[in-house]
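Researcher: Good morning. I'm working through a list of sequences from a screen, and I'd like to move beyond sequence-only analysis. For each chain I'm collecting a predicted structure so we can compare shapes side by side. This is the next one on the list. No need for commentary yet; just the structure.
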Amino acid sequence: MLVTTGLLRFGKRSDQPIPITALNSRLLETFLQAAIRPILTVRDFSTEFRTIEILEQSDAATRGVDSFALAIIKVERQLRKLFTFLIFQYPSLRAVGVPTLRDLLYSKRIYSSGMIQGINEIAPKSIKELIGVEHDVLFGRLGDATEIRNKIFHGQVTDQHLSRSQLFEYVHFLRQWCSLLAVSAEAEFGYDGFGSNSYRQSADQNFVVRLKRQINSLDDYAQLLDVLKRVPPL
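Model: Good morning. Structure tokens for this chain:
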């Protein structure tokens, strides 16, 4: 799968195709964000999806695949950042320090499904409760999209033979998932999963007492992560 970087390179057009991989999707996002950084003052749901909007409105031949891949990255990142925000509310983990917490989480290689379970076990409200009545439909679409993404990234042919418009439809559902989750999480937790630095203490000093699970040490956290890494992918 190829992506043409005609909109990138900071004003200099380049039509040199590069392979579309998980790494290149992130590089693509980095370039796009750099191009629009002067107009972004706050990182939230709307600004996070600005890069995808630019791709959708471009004339790049692979804009469907590229937008789709970036949308899934947004979903996974939001889940991870909500999870790390929640665990940072525990005084025992704040005392350990952010680098140690990041390294431990990275070492476990947890799927987004594991992040969902982790949020469900810790947060006052589950992901399903946060997203509301649209959850079941959107969760099903997320599972389908994840399977399609994995095949694309591994160079496999999907059996759906998806058109660009169908990929954009998946982007719409993924955007809706992130939007509903962001609004509810902001209201319930004080953080939407998109703001920079998820390792932050809640403005509500009593928020920690609402968390459903007790974590009193780094070992407790490591044991939770060991459970979450065994959760199968969506």
